[in-house]
């Protein structure tokens, strides 16, 4: 039950690219681990600025805890293509394996073949809003 599911990335109706199930996924199953480099906040801030300067439109920084962020921008896996949705079919959970914190994406409900994998990014509330493109009935309008 702890193997990653068969997934593919492809064009998304939500935002550019997305991640899609290639097999049925039951509720409460591990879908995929979010993989990248573990870095500190100070390094994440510097990288974010550098990515903008380099013209990298999307950075894939996922906060694990107060001190640690996983950067999947240049060395991540397919999990970085999972889009935000206000009514997601998955959730992210921080688990500890052999004293190392990891982010794992789990299904909230059954997911069908070719269904897009989504989770709520749970961005902190900020003045500068990032528009949400999920278009669900209960869309909040912004990611933050």
Automatic annotation (TrEMBL):
GO terms for cellular component: Set1C/COMPASS complex. One of its GO terms (biological process) is methylation. InterPro entries: Post-SET_dom, Set1-like, SET_dom, SET_dom_sf. Residues 128-144 form the Post-SET domain. Keywords: Chromatin regulator, Methyltransferase, Nucleus, RNA-binding, S-adenosyl-L-methionine, Transferase. SUPFAM superfamilies: SET domain. Residues 5-122 form the SET domain. Its main location: nucleus. One of its GO terms (molecular function) is histone H3K4 methyltransferase activity. It comes from the Eukaryota. It holds the Pfam family SET. It is found in: Nucleus. This is SET1A methyltransferase. The gene is Setd1a.
């Amino acid at each position: 039950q702890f193997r990653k599911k068969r997934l593919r990335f492809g064009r998304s109706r939500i935002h550019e690219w997305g991640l899609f199930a290639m097999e049925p996924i039951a509720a409460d199953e591990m879908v995929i681990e979010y993989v990248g480099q573990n870095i500190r906040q100070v390094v994440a801030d510097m990288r974010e600025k550098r990515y903008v300067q380099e013209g990298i439109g999307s950075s894939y920084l996922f906060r694990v805890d107060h001190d640690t962020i996983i950067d999947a921008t240049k060395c991540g896996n397919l999990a970085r293509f999972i889009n935000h949705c206000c009514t997601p079919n998955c959730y992210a959970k921080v688990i500890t394996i052999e004293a190392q914190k990891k982010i794992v994406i789990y299904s909230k409900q059954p997911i069908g073949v070719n269904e897009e994998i989504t989770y709520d990014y749970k961005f902190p509330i900020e003045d500068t809003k990032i528009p949400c493109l999920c278009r669900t009935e209960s869309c909040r309008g912004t990611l933050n």
